[in-house]
Each structure stands twice: as C-alpha cells, then as structure tokens.
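To fix ideas, we reproduce below a protein record of this kind.
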Amino acid sequence: MRCKYTRDVDAGDQCDPALVTVKNGRRVIAAGTIVDAAIHALARPAADVRAGIAVPDDDECREACGMTAQQIAVAQKAIQKWYTPQTEEAGDNDDDE
C-alpha cells in the first residue's frame, strides 16, 4: 500500500531515515515522497490520505482509505486551510468596543 505526500510533514523521531529530508532545519517527509507500507514499517498510507496530507499511489491505498476523489480533495483543502496563516481583513476588527 502506497501514498504520495502532497505537503511537507514533520518526520518525527521514529521515521525511517530514508524518508527524511532536512528543510529549514526541520526533519520532514517532503511533498512528492512516495511511502510504501511494505518497505517502511511505521507507514500508514491510508491514514495519511484521510488526514489530507497524501494521495493514494495504488489501488490498495485507494480502497483502504475509503474515500472518493472528491473527499480526498476536501481533506487536502481543509489541511491546507489549517496550515495557512490567517490574516484579519480590514473592517473585521472587533476591538472597537
């Protein structure tokens, strides 16, 4: 079962060193990395797809994640929104009270 990461994610301490890239001093699994659960014991491709940080890279993962292509796109959009810095728009500041 394989997935392909769509964004850089924290590699953590238990991650297989073969998957780790250092960017800006952080250990990450880089966007575009394909992770195969048959090779990387701690990989969870279906869970990573459901979390919105990866897309299925084979039929086994597509089936295991239990999501349609539209649901996968919604999950990716939600995680992108979560990590995008929010700025206050002019006129929306409620500190005038």
Q: What stands out?
A: Residues 2-83 form one domain.
